[in-house]
Amino acid sequence: MDIMAFLKENVRPATGCTEPVAVAYATALAYEALQPKFFRTDIEKIIIKTDRDVFKNAYAVTIPGTGGQKGMAIAAAMGLFCDFQKKLNLFEDMDESVVARAKEYLPKIQIQAVTDIEAQPELDIQVTIRGKQRQAFVRLRYDHENVAELIVDGQTRQLFSGQKKESRKFVLPQTLNEFLTIVQNMQSLEKAEVWKGLELNKKIAEEGLRKRYGAGMAYELLEMVKKNILADSTVMKVRIMAAAAGDARMGGVTMPVMSTSGSGNQGIAALIPILVIGEILQHKDKMIEAAMLAHLITALAAQDAGHLSALCGCAIKAGMGAAAGVAYLLGGNLAQITDAINRLAACPTGMICDGAKECCASKLETAAGKATECAYMAMGGRSLAIDNGIICAKVEDTIRAVGQISYSMVSTDATIVKILQNKA
């Protein structure tokens, strides 16, 4: 497998929640396509249409640099003032003056009903910028950066960003044993690239501890530790760090995180447990290998469970990745890593996703903490019996089983989105 190609496609920095950022990216692309003889003052309407899960994740999440404003409308308006070439880091240099100018365009933004609410999950973002005489349409599909269509004034244009899903330059192995071979044979440049993600997510966690953001879940946990309501343990350190990163990211901090399989929160859930345990063990190389294993397991789970669904990706995808990574970091063998993943799958698989929002920090700390617990339990030497629910003797079958459950919950996902639409 081409590791660098895998990292380029699956492990990318992102500033802010990836779904509204992708909407902003599509808006920026559409506006750029109308240049040079089209101005923001020429805009009469911006029409946004997305799949149900992009709608769900962009519904109530705080947009970086806005002082607490939420939702895809302000994100799209900000896209008009951003450099499309920054892709998922469009918002990294956002300031108050840009936000103030963007707010003037909010009355012109129309968010339409989601595309086929009962369909199987598939990322789909459509943005149309309409002027009196001109129009541009951009469609992102399968991936936040993948431009599937670009139509200007009725004419299809050559795509200037992204590649089609089918052009993937790597083949993802399908077994844990193959993954272990990959991580144990990484080259120095590949390791350096993986290390960037650990450093990036550590910084945002530290920022979340420095100042109270979002729902302040990390602060609440710290307060309970001080009052001896919760124990000051290794697992609690993982939970607090994951919550802090989630607080900062969901609270709108203008800092990037390293995402995995299309989600910044999954990047937090997958990497923070490995970071905390790795720093305790003081084994950098092993930590990097564990992080790579977490990325691979998360990608395999995402392949089976889909991009977004009714199930929380931090629990069912990144959670399994983190459990595998921590078990590997602790010296686990194939059987023990398998057991760590199975234990995780046996517990928080039913955690639903009702959209990105401030209290996702709580889901993050739950998933990260449980993944760490499962890894330590697996190192005890006694595997969880395979008659426990959906877990299987082959860990790959467990991951597929979770994916099957995810895909079977289309009606649940649609119900969640309908509730959010009624609230809106």
Strand order of the largest sheet: 3-2-4-5-6-7
Globally, the shape reads: globular
Name the helix and strand elements from N-terminus to C-terminus, one letter apiece. Answer: HEHEHHHEEEEEHHHHEHHHHHHH
The radius of gyration computed from the alpha-carbon positions, rounded to a whole number of angstroms, is 21 Å
In CATH, what is the homologous superfamily of the largest domain? 2-methylcitrate dehydratase PrpD
Indicate the mean pLDDT.
92
The N- and C-terminal alpha carbons lie at a distance of: 45 Å
Total count of domains: 2
Low-confidence stretches: 161-167
Structural class: alpha+beta
- Main sheet attributes: strand count, strand direction, barrel closure: 6 strands, mixed
Predict the CATH topology of the largest domain.
2-methylcitrate dehydratase PrpD
Strand proportion: 5-15%
Assembly status: single chain
Query: How many DSSP helices?
Result: 16
Task: Kindly state the number of beta strands.
Answer: 8
CATH class of the largest domain: Mainly Alpha
Percentage of residues assigned to helices:
40-55%
What is the CATH-assigned architecture of the largest domain? Orthogonal Bundle
Structure description:
By secondary structure, the chain is α+β, with helices and mostly antiparallel strands. The protein has two domains: 154 residues, 60s Ribosomal Protein L30, Chain: A; 248 residues, Orthogonal Bundle (2-methylcitrate dehydratase PrpD). Helix content is 52%, strand content 9%. The protein has a six-stranded mixed beta sheet. The protein has a two-stranded antiparallel ribbon with strand order 1-8. A hairpin with a 5-residue loop joins strand 5 and strand 6. The chain is globular, with a radius of gyration of 21 Å. About 2% of the residues have low confidence.
